[in-house]
Amino acid sequence: MARGLQKEQAQAKSREKMAKAAGGKSQLSTRAAGLKISCPACKAPMSDYKNFKDHFEAKHPKLPLPAEGSVLPA
Ligand SMILES: [Zn+2]
């Protein structure tokens, strides 16, 4: 009985994992396609804020990092 329960839990877990992976992936590509931002300092195009933040911290460490809402299209 314990074995059956474990199997069920494992199946539920893998289903959850797969749904999460699929959902996360499609959401990510939608975001990448829909949101285009550019660095205010050097106009380099960025696919999302995380990308932009990494770029900004690496390339413009002396400038204050703009807030997410100020670089993303409204
Ligand atoms: Zn830049």
From TrEMBL:
Keywords for this protein: Cytoplasm, Nucleus
Main subcellular localisation: cytoplasm
SUPFAM superfamilies: Expressed protein At2g23090/F21P24.15
GO CC entries: cytoplasm; nucleus
Domain Small EDRK-rich factor-like N-terminal span(s) in chain numbering: 1-30
Residue segments, region Disordered: 1-28
Compartments reported by the entry: Cytoplasm; Nucleus
UniProt-recorded name of the protein: Small EDRK-rich factor-like N-terminal domain-containing protein
The species this protein was found in: Rhodotorula graminis (strain WP1)
Lineage of the species this protein comes from: Eukaryota, Fungi, Dikarya, Basidiomycota, Pucciniomycotina
